[in-house]
């Protein structure tokens, strides 16, 4: 079967294709590292694999953001015995879970320039986004420059 050209895919399909390629590349780099007899070469391939794992994380983030059905699969827990049930053809007895520990109060996040250092993507204003990913929060001592304040003739006063 002929592969669909990238130009004929929608964004979700492109991200899935990237995800598949990144996962294949991780396997290759880790195999190269295992086969290497030189420690520096092994470290090099493991470093490359680590970078590809970051790309996988970013691709999954984008996929979850764009495909609510896929996101639902990530947020729904897989029941104990799910895989055994699939191969056994019937329900697998599941031991009753231990009582859940008392919930501990969530720590209050440290605010940085009035913003939480970890924000959901949808809460970020456009100037805080870079290629659809959250930009790092500004440093406490940084000056709050915006594109509007840099416009010619504005004199930094945002007009």
- Percent of residues in beta strands: under 5%
> What's the end-to-end separation, in Å?
57 Å
Low-confidence stretches: 127-134, 144-152
The oligomeric state of the chains shown is: single chain
- Main sheet summary: 2 strands, antiparallel
Strand ordering within the main sheet: 1-2
What is the general shape?
extended
SSE string, helices as H and strands as E = HHHHEE
**Mean pLDDT level:** 73
Instruction: Give the structural class.
Output: mainly alpha
Helix content: 40-55%
The radius of gyration over CA amounts to 23 Å
Please report the total strand number as a whole number: 2
Query: What is the count of helical runs?
Result: 4
Short description:
The chain is an all-alpha fold and 159 residues long. It is built from four helices and two strands, in the order H-H-H-H-E-E. The protein has a two-stranded antiparallel sheet.
Q: What are the main properties of this structure?
A:
159 residues, extended, mainly alpha, two-stranded antiparallel sheet
Tell me about this structure.
With 159 residues, the protein is mainly α. The chain contains 4 helices and 2 strands; from the N terminus they run H-H-H-H-E-E. It has helices spanning 11-35, 39-66, 68-75, 82-88; strands spanning 129-130, 133-134. Strands 1-2 form a two-stranded antiparallel sheet. A hairpin with a 2-residue loop joins strand 1 (129-130) and strand 2 (133-134). Helix 1 (11-35) runs antiparallel to helix 2 and helix 2 (39-66) packs across helix 3. The longest helix has 28 residues, at 39-66. The radius of gyration is 23 Å and the shape is extended. It starts with 10 loop residues before the first helix and ends in a 25-residue tail after the last strand. Residues 127-134 and 144-152 have low confidence and may be disordered.
């Amino acid at each position: 079967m002929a592969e669909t050209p990238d130009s004929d895919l929608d964004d979700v399909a492109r991200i899935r294709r990237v995800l598949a390629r990144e996962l294949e590349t991780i396997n290759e780099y880790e195999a190269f590292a295992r086969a290497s007899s030189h420690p520096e070469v092994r470290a090099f391939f493991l470093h490359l694999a680590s970078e590809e794992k970051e790309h996988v994380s970013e691709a999954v983030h984008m996929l979850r953001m764009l495909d609510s059905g896929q996101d639902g699969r990530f947020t729904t827990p897989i029941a104990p015995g799910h895989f055994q049930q699939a191969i056994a053809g019937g329900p697998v007895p599941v031991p009753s879970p231990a009582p859940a520990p008392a919930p501990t109060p969530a720590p209050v996040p440290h605010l940085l320039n009035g913003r939480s250092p970890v924000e959901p993507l949808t809460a970020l204003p456009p100037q805080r986004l870079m290629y659809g990913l959250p930009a790092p929060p500004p440093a406490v001592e940084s000056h709050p420059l915006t594109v509007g304040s840099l416009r010619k003739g504005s004199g930094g006063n945002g007009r």
